[in-house]
Design brief:
Elements lengths: L9 H11 L1 H6 L2 H18 L1 H4 L36 H36 L3 H15 L2 H12 L3 H27 L3 H8 L4 H12 L1 H24 L11 H8 L8 H28 L6
């Protein structure tokens, strides 16, 4: 039998690759499919808010204040009701998704970049470089991140930029510890030693051989960190230390609705459900991504 007779045709190879692709693996799991659906819904709602929102999110109408949602006797003009200033909750929910998702993804990306650089350098190089970097990581791990975030935001002032920087500075250590441990394992592998023998520079070894082999936990942790960042942003904004009050966010909607729970429960319940649904969707997506990318879970 010739070698060509046992080779799979190109079409079957492409089909096999598609079946093994991460996205196919995620959607193939029920939890992953639910997570992807929720995440896509939130992203589309945020991206299309200027066209889908029925009202201006900051337009006030005291004559329409505290209108109930349509499913508890309200009107279709205000599907999710209005707040204490007569602002449409559905419109504010859509625009709030833009801020929460932007802060969540941007902060996770910045924290992931910082933590990856620190972790991979500390794990690859010996001596004083490793000692200094890991002692810095230990210091940040010893500080309660919520107290650190509250203190720094309180000192610098509220704002999206300050909030992103503070959250990134409190969470990069999670990436650094994970990447550090993975790098210590990868640097002893045969292919890394072979690259050294071939005369590759340390920079090339880091970029071409070490980084690709520690990228899987980075991607998974970054995905899960987005959910944590959304919760942190909402919590700090709820305390008055996040985004300015003029910007519609889920955290401010919770903060403004807490005083009306007895007469207008939807002011806090609606943004609360949005936060829970988004975090749940991201966590389900992250779990499915981990199960798909980690080969040890396939044994």
């Amino acid at each position: 039998m010739t070698s060509t007779s046992v080779q799979a045709p190109p079409s079957s190879k492409r089909a096999g690759w598609l079946m093994a692709s991460p996205l196919r693996g995620i959607i193939g799991r029920s939890s992953g499919a639910i997570g992807v659906a929720i995440l896509l819904l939130m992203i589309l709602m945020a991206a299309l808010a200027p066209w889908l929102a029925p009202h201006d999110p900051n337009a006030q109408s005291l004559l329409s204040r505290l209108k109930p949602p349509v499913f508890v006797g309200g009107t279709w003009k205000y599907v999710l009701g209005t707040d204490h200033l007569g602002r449409d909750l559905l419109s504010r929910l859509m625009y709030g998704a833009r801020i929460s998702l932007f802060i969540g993804f941007t902060t996770a990306l910045i924290a992931g970049l910082i933590g990856t650089v620190v972790g991979i350098v500390a794990g690859f190089y010996d001596g004083w470089i490793r000692s200094v970097l890991m002692r810095i990581v230990d210091v940040f791990l010893a500080i309660p991140y919520i107290l650190f975030a509250v203190a720094v935001v309180g000192a610098l002032g509220a704002g999206i930029t300050n909030l992103i920087l503070v959250l990134a500075c409190t969470r990069w250590v999670q990436f650094a510890r994970i990447v550090y441990g993975q790098t210590l394992s990868v640097r002893e592998k045969e292919y890394v030693e072979a690259a050294r023998v071939r005369g590759n520079s340390q920079w090339r070894i880091l970029v071409a051989h070490v980084l690709p082999n520690v990228s899987t936990p980075i991607i998974v942790v970054m995905t899960l960190e987005v959910a944590f960042m959304i919760i942190m942003e909402s919590a700090l904004t709820f305390l008055g230390l996040g985004v300015s009050p003029s910007t519609p966010t889920w955290g401010w909607m919770l903060a403004e609705g807490k005083d009306y729970m007895s007469i207008a429960w939807w002011l806090s319940v609606v943004p609360g459900i949005a936060i829970v649904a988004t975090v749940l969707g991201i966590n389900l997506f992250g779990d499915a991504l981990r199960d798909t990318l980690d080969p040890r879970l396939k044994l």
